[in-house]
Amino acid sequence: MFQLDNVKYKNIINTKQLTIPADTITAVTGPSGSGKSTLLRLLNYLVSPDSGTVSYHGKPFSAWEPTELRRQVMMLPQQPVLFGETVAENLQAGRLFSGREEVSEEKLTAAAQQCMLNKQLSDSAENLSGGEQQRLSLARLLLAGPDVYLLDEPTSALDEDMEWNVMERFLAEARRAAKGVIFVSHAAAMADHFADHTIQSDSFTRGGGLKP
Length: 212
Ligand SMILES: Nc1ncnc2c1ncn2[C@@H]1O[C@H](COP(=O)(O)OP(=O)(O)OP(=O)(O)O)[C@@H](O)[C@H]1O
Description:
The chain has 212 residues and is of the alpha/beta class. Helices cover 37% and strands 23% of the residues. The strands form two sheets. Strands 5-4-1-2-10 form a five-stranded mixed sheet. The longest helix is centred in the last third of the chain and has 17 residues, at 160-176. The structure holds adenosine-5'-triphosphate. Adenosine-5'-triphosphate (ATP) is lined by residues 10, 12, 30, 32-38. GO terms for molecular function: ATP binding; ATP hydrolysis activity.
């Protein structure tokens, strides 16, 4: 579980108390510019609050070793980031982030297929479309295998059908492996369909508190 106590960050985040489960699927929704990405960045220790405390498993972030925390909690930013030239290198990078051994080409291909990326491992990652790079990033994250996935609009560049299909497949795998997922979505219908809990940005920007 994540817990935010009396957290303020710039004039964006303001909450007395917010708890977010780390073992189920939670959607974060709200208007553009309302602070959803900033919440994920706080949960990934990429930014620290100006005041208050963010904790994971009851331990304040300040007491965590940052590398260890980021092996357990990994974030997919809104814009895909590439690590290496080929599809294979990009997938294997997930293993390196998590400090794990490389895996076979079969496993790389299986992860890519799980996220509906039908490309050769030797293909150039740079030449993939924005939507393909999003699916590549999701597959890399699956291979990294953290305990909690923080996904910032992970399928925004896909058409609606594929968006639902990819989320279905990714979340099925996360549930199978008993992982937590916190995903930002602009689509209320997607939040309703996939998430066990939904958090509206009001609950962490207006000084209130919420236990989902
Ligand atoms: N480091 C920062 N310093 C100052 N303002 C910031 C910073 N980061 C974000 N903001 C501002 O805070 C607000 C919230 O940004 P954030 O990216 O969290 O919103 P969002 O809800 O994820 O938006 P979107 O749905 O459009 O992605 C925006 O107005 C943004 O410009």
